[in-house]
Every structure is written in C-alpha cells, then in structure tokens.
Amino acid sequence: MSSFSDWRVMPAVALLAALGLAGCEQKQQQDHAASKAPKEVEAIIVSAESFTLVDELPGRIEPVRVAQVRARVAGIVLSRNFEEGADVKAGAVLFQIDPAPFKAALSKAQGDLARTQATLFETQATVK
C-alpha cells in the first residue's frame, strides 16, 4: 500500500514543482521587462543665487567693564532720566530725587545754626 500511495503522490509533487518554477520564471521576465522601461523623474534647472547663512546659537555675553549707575544720596527717586544701555555724558542729570526731606533737613540745620549763634552771642555778652 505504501508503494501505491508513493506512486500517486510523486506525479502530483512533480506537477506542482513544475508550475511553481514556471511561475517564478514568468515573474523574473516581467521584472526584467519593467526594469528596462525608462523611469519618470523630476528635473530642475540649477542657477547661482546669493543667500545669507544664519545660524542662531544660544549663549551669554559678558562685558569687559561694568558701570553701576547709582544715586549719590539716599532718597525717593521721582524719575529716572536715562534709558538702560544708552550713552550718558558727564554731568548729565540721571535721577530726580524727592527734595522734601532735604529741604526739611536744611531748615532744621539752619534753625540749629541760628540757635547756636544766639547762644554764642549771649555767651559773649555775658563775658564782657
């Protein structure tokens, strides 16, 4: 029985193998024919143009010299008369400071001076 089934299976296997090989050969011929056909491509005309190359990189800069702008006296700043980073000249008014406390201090000092002068005058009168 074994020889009978081998005899019937062998021709079937041979037929399938022949069909498979024929199919592969046909596909190779189609691929070969397709590779001979010209392929579509895009073409552009090259011309010289000027362009600016820009490369932005993160970083920090540090000045060689640092100038601190400060008021020379204490007080309430009413206005700042310059812009940060702008050039300023010697003698330019940079800040306006509230004059009221300074006027009060001047009046007090003038009063103390007048009282001391009066005491001096009185003491000189007593000595004579």
TrEMBL record:
SUPFAM superfamilies: HlyD-like secretion proteins
One GO cellular component term noted in the UniProt record for this chain: plasma membrane
GO biological process, one term: response to antibiotic
Protein name per Swiss-Prot or TrEMBL: Secretion protein HlyD
InterPro entries xrefs: MdtA-like_BSH (IPR058625)
Similarity-based family: Belongs to the membrane fusion protein (MFP) (TC 8.A.1) family.
Residue stretches making up the Multidrug resistance protein MdtA-like barrel-sandwich hybrid domain: 65-104
Superkingdom of source: Bacteria
